[in-house]
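Are you able to produce any protein sequence you like plus the matching backbone structure tokens because I've never seen that pairing?
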Amino acid sequence: MPMPVAKQVQVASVHRVLIGRRTLDQIVAGEVDLAFRRWERPRVRPGTRLRTAVGLIAVDAIEQVDPSTVSAEDLRRAGIPLQAEDERPLWRIALRYDGPDPRVALREDQRLDAEQLEALRARLARFDVQSAHGPWTRQTLTLIAQQPATLAADLAAQLGREKLPFKRDVRKLKELGLTESLQTGYRLSPRGRALLDAL
């Protein structure tokens, strides 16, 4: 009997749906499991997981609906009133809490064995080779280690770079569990410090 094929899951940032912190907490508590948005076309797909301040939020379904069919119970389950009426289609999104962001546990894991260390080195080397502005990974890790909680714009300026491309690169490091975002700027995670020490 053939083995089932694993379903590819898309992970997206929460800005695609714009969910406030109060609503996020209600989703975690199971009090909210719907959202309504007016979009020209869907901005998320079923199977998407949204990274948020409270962890992962799963999108289980999305469908276009007639505003006149939205019930009081639907609004209660959404936690907030409908957006102001306009000409764009209305979409009903089924949501649920899907657990903590796995990057949180990853960045706390500083026990890098030889295989993990080699895999991280190879990944950083690929980032450097693919970069249009030359090698940047070790330089960026070192700068963040030396100047935690510093504005991204200030860090970027020290490297002679624009802020937005610099922030995109730091997000690549964050995906590997090497950095953490702060209220202002960044810091190395325990995993990032262990890697930098090994480099």
Summary: Residues 11-100 form a domain with the Archaeosine Trna-guanine Transglycosylase; Chain: A, domain 4 fold (CATH 2.30.130.30). Confidence is low (pLDDT under 50) at residues 1-9. Strands lie at 11-13, 34-38, 49-52, 55-65, 90-97, 179-181, 186-188. The chain has two domains: 11-100, 103-198.
